[in-house]
Write a structure and sequence with these properties.
A hairpin with a 3-residue loop joins β4 (63-64) and β5. It contains 25 helices and 19 strands. The protein is globular. The protein has 641 residues and is an alpha/beta fold.
């Protein structure tokens, strides 16, 4: 693992050594195992190293060769096939660092090398002959890169911290970004924005190119151009699915020393990762460590009738069913919610969407570091890939005259003909009309009124409601029904939120001396799921059919066919009441800050705080989660300005 930083002068000048030294100091947490800085002419490039895998000990960055200079966080999958294709002697495969493999790939394919690189990587390559800088980011965006430029220079790093110490970069909050965060508005037109108005992020599957001609972002990954499988690979979708998913997990188990751990919930995604990882670790004499967030306050689980407030019992059942898993529940009894928000701001230098989860995520990361864990697996991207529910619509088959597909759906469905027609034909047909009626029913009310701490005047100034409608976002965390709309495709691809999610987990890992890896966001897995026909994601008339059928027998029936969805942090209302003094003090700080008063609905946040003090109920807890805590996340960030 590595963190990179650098500056490219676009005018006749050289980067200032003192500025680069400050950037390196800001990146100190990223690499206790060395690194270095190189400077020649217009470019200065630096790296900090953290050894996770055996071959990392052979890595030396920046990698300086006669034709190129390279630095980056690089964890390649399918290394053996890549090395074979590049003509590397087999004896060198186990110890050859990934940075040298990328250098060889660059010499073979140039900028097209990205197409041949599988894994989690972000890499800067300086072509010394052409005097051109290329910085690529992996397809799914499991890494991160931030940058700023003007006519004179380009500054970049895997951490915003390194950019914030640069004297040329303005430090201004991005009003639009924070407004979208408060209203859970995913705008694909602003996928490169950050919480700072002048700092951008490189989207996944893209490359940043800079040289004498200027600076440009170019996309290199186009999964939507992949055609749907005409037939199951190898004749069996389930076997092909298990194969590609298994390879994604296997490639993420490599570590030089220390246990491999997993953030395990009661769901299918992390459960399927456990089912694939635990037997593979057993074969090499190791055990999988599983951390599960559980409530500290027992009554919390009773608050959420439609949600599973305590995921511990089902997660434990998964661990016992699979075997070779050390199950560790994390109740975080001494959690400090306000302190956790501030700690996350310290790690990421910008607010996060899931701010209510900060305390238990930090507790798991801290315990993982204490236990010597070097690799922490997650299943964060599974909802959009391995456990994608499919649309379930049989309209394409009906309109296309594919009567065989309709007969097969009727034959395999336990619902009966009437229910099948209602759920998979009538509902999709009427979905646009139903959503139109819902919009009319709001009678002009803003869609985020029940869950956001945004100041109404601030939202009006940004014309947020109009923009949300233009982007076909409902404001209720869903996309308007339209199978051709790119937002739906982005969700299915696992790209929705991927610009920020992967970078945040990479930063979390760097701060805790470990690497966070998500096999559900593997490029091969995403592409397989993208090419798989929708009916395959259905089994016996139910969504998530691919993973349910693919892991039948590997997971408990209660997990394969669950009831209510899990809710981590279900006891947050009780926790907030336990630290009312800290919450009240934070609200007072926001009230005294002019920018917080202008951008946040502080009376609404105070009301949520007071209502929670009267009684911890499902409604007051929900308002605390969505209004109070998310508002605090943005507000405490605004105190920096």
């Amino acid at each position: 693992m590595a963190g990179l930083y650098g500056e490219l002068s676009l005018a006749p000048a050289s980067p200032a050594p003192a500025t680069l030294a400050a950037m390196e100091r800001a990146m100190a947490d990223w690499g206790p195992d060395g690194g270095g800085r190189w400077q020649e002419g217009p470019l200065a490039l630096g790296a900090r190293l953290l050894h996770i895998r055996p071959q990392d000990t052979q890595d030396c960055q920046p990698l300086i060769e006669s034709d190129l200079v390279l630095a980056g966080h690089i964890r390649l999958d399918d290394r053996d096939n890549l090395a074979r294709e590049l003509g590397v002697a087999r004896a060198a495969w186990p110890t050859l660092p990934d940075s040298r493999l990328v250098a060889l790939a660059w010499r073979r394919w140039g900028e097209a090398c990205a197409q041949h690189l599988y894994g989690d990587w972000v890499c800067a390559i300086w072509d010394r002959r052409r005097r051109r800088l290329w910085i690529g980011r992996d397809a799914a965006g499991n890494t991160g890169l931030y940058f700023w430029h003007d006519a004179r220079r380009l500054v970049f790093a895997t951490s915003i911290k390194a950019l914030l110490v640069h004297p040329a970069i303005p430090k201004r909050p991005d009003a639009d970004y924070l407004a979208r965060l408060l209203t859970v508005f995913h705008d694909p037109a602003r996928a490169d924005s950050t919480a700072y108005a002048d700092i951008r992020r490189l989207p996944g599957g893209c490359a940043l190119c800079a040289g004498p001609g200027g600076v440009a972002v170019e996309r290199w990954w186009y999964p939507e151009r992949l055609s749907e499988f005409a037939a199951a690979p190898g004749g069996d979708y389930l076997s092909a699915f298990r194969d590609v998913y298994g390879r994604a997990v296997q490639d993420r188990l490599c570590t030089a020393a220390g246990p491999v751990a997993l953030m395990l919930s009661a769901g299918l995604d992390s459960g399927s990762v456990a089912a694939l990882a635990a037997p593979r670790l057993a074969a090499r004499g190791e055990r999988l460590v599983a951390y599960t967030s559980v409530p500290h306050f027992g009554p919390a689980s009773a608050l959420w009738a439609s949600r599973l407030g305590d995921e511990g019992p089902l997660a434990r059942a998964t661990a016992e069913h699979i075997g070779n898993i050390e199950f560790i529940p994390i109740a975080a009894p001494r959690a400090d919610l306000v302190g956790a928000i501030e700690r996350m701001l310290e790690l990421h230098d910008q607010p996060q969407h899931g701010v209510a989860n900060a305390y238990w995520i930090l507790d798991i990361l801290a315990q993982a570091r204490q236990h010597g864990v070097r690799v922490l697996l997650t299943g964060q991207g599974g909802n959009a890939t391995v456990s994608w529910s499919g649309t379930g619509s049989l309209l394409p088959a009906l309109l296309g005259g594919r009567w065989g597909a309709l007969r097969a759906a009727l034959r395999d469905s336990p619902l009966g003909a009437g229910q099948l027609i209602k759920r998979r034909l009538v509902r999709p047909l009427l979905a646009p009309a139903r959503q139109a009626v819902q919009r009319i029913g709001r009678r002009g009310a803003v869609p985020w009124g029940q869950y956001s701490a945004i100041n109404p005047a601030f939202a009006a100034d940004l014309r947020l409601a109009r923009r949300m409608r233009a982007a076909r976002c409902n404001g209720d965390f869903s996309t308007l029904f339209d199978p051709r709309h790119p937002l739906l495709a982005q969700f299915r691809l696992g790209r929705r939120g991927s610009t920020t999610l992967g970078a945040a987990w990479m930063e979390n890992g760097a701060a805790h001396r470990l690497e966070v890896r998500d096999p559900t966001r593997d490029r091969r897995v995403i592409e397989f799921c993208w090419q798989t026909p929708d009916p395959v994601f259905w089994a016996q008339g139910r969504g998530r059919g691919l993973i349910r059928a693919g892991f039948s027998g590997d997971l408990p029936d209660a997990v394969l066919h669950p009831g209510p969805r899990g809710l981590q942090g279900a006891d947050v209302g009780y926790r907030l009441n336990q630290e009312r003094a800290a919450v009240g003090a934070a609200l007072a700080r926001l009230t005294a800050h002019p920018l917080a008063r202008a951008w946040l609905d502080l009376p609404k946040m105070h009301a949520a705080y007071q209502d929670l003090g009267q009684a911890v109920t499902r409604d007051t807890s929900r308002r605390a989660l969505t209004i109070l805590l998310r508002g605090l996340g943005v507000g405490l960030f605004l105190l920096r300005f």
